[in-house]
Amino acid sequence: MRPDRLRALRLRAELYATLRAFFAGRGVLEVETPILSAAGNSDPNIESFDTEFSGHVDAGAARRWLRTSPEFPLKRLLAEGLGDCYELGRVFRNGETGRTHNPEFTMLEWYRVGIDHRALASEVLDLVELAMALVGRRVRRRTTGYRDWFRAEIDLDPFLASETQLQQALGEVRIDGDGLLRDDWLDLLVTHRLQPRLEADLALVVHDFPASQCALARVIERDGVRVAERFECYLGGRELANGYHELNDAGEQRRRFEADLALRRARGQAEVALDQRLLAALPQLPDCAGVALGIERLLQAMLGADDLGDVLAYAFADA
After folding, report:
1. C or N terminus of the chain, fewer CB within 10 Å?
2. What is the tens place of the pLDDT at every residue in 227-276?
3. Domains recognised in the chain with CATH numbers
4. What angle separates helix 117-133 from helix 3-25, to the nearest 10 degrees?
């Protein structure tokens, strides 16, 4: 075995032990939830793997989806009164492969009761600092608003700019814009203009995204615009984590899911079953914040690896 591959495997094991000690010290309980579910992920930007159960019909729905995140069952546990919890495990996303993606990867997801997304973002930075210390590296911490980030870096207000202005801000980046929506252009500006400017030793939290990018986060009005109470954490040019001040309004969440399904139908994407158990549990969800962090992305940053396959035992093509 090559020394660099052995180092990556050993570092993963050391990171797992460090993460578990981190959460144990803060009273956050480790749990395991199902990998197969009767409901899928409605997000039009994420495709799920699915399979068929061949057993007795009384066992429930035959069609099952491999989870893209443990989010829904973890929230159901929170609604039952479990309290602060986390899960470290494999998740699956169809069609995602390359230097920064693998269809099967490891996600760390955790929830803290009684705090909002910005307080949880500070804990994410604590964890990133601890992980980087394992390889003898220090990171600088910075927090900024989504709007302030755009204004400071490319002199553009992402909430008020027209779609034409967003497209022009891409400069020499050439994109086939057929079918792209406003949020797609904003995402392209993040990946092509903003992320590449981030320094390797900077751990950056960006909070309060446009309300149209709310997903499962609460929406409020701030500085005259509606914003989603969510954050993303970047380390260098890599997006590591995505977190929310969690929505507990079942009616609003159902409307968002149905809007997702309508967009999926318009794009010719596969239908997925909505998680009715989650929707039933949401009114009992306590005030909390949750975040998902990609372990392979963190390992890439720790090792300075350009290819996500360098931190896996076997990448998708070799599995």
Report:
1. N
2. 999 999 999 889 999 999 999 999 999 999 999 999 999 989 988 999 99
3. 3-318 (3.30.930.10)
4. 140
